[in-house]
């Protein structure tokens, strides 16, 4: 015979009165409402980021240079040189990705001041 059971009612937490709600937005660790670099121009930000991780712009320039020279060699009919430069472009792209990842991990592991 099946025993009759009453459905379990989950206990509800007591509601907090409005007087206990803190004023202003919630405080989230690592988030600042006021950006640190409000008046930073594009050039200033580029220089700051380049100083933080100089290998990313070097990799980007190497990638663009290999691409341009490879396309020019292809246009001139130098297929062997074009192939070598396209392989160099892939290597430069890989270097750039590794530089980005190293920069991200270095920033994540840096102690917060």
Automatic annotation (TrEMBL):
The cellular component terms of Gene Ontology attached to this UniProt record, alphabetical and capped at eight, are:
mitochondrial membrane
What are the TM regions of this chain, as residue ranges?
53-70, 90-109
From the UniProt entry, list the residue stretches annotated as the region Disordered. Answer: 1-25
Q: Which residues belong to any copy of the HIG1 domain?
A: 27-113
The lineage's top-level taxon is: Eukaryota
Q: Can you supply a Gene Ontology BP term from the record?
A: mitochondrial respirasome assembly
Q: Report keywords, A-Z.
A: Membrane, Transmembrane, Transmembrane helix
Whether Membrane counts among this entry's keywords is: yes
Pfam families referenced in this protein's UniProt entry, alphabetically: HIG_1_N (PF04588)
The cellular location(s) given in this protein's UniProt record come to: Mitochondrion membrane
InterPro entries from the UniProt entry: Hypoxia_induced_domain, RCF1
Protein name stated in the entry: HIG1 hypoxia inducible domain family member 2A
This chain's source organism reads: Seriola lalandi dorsalis
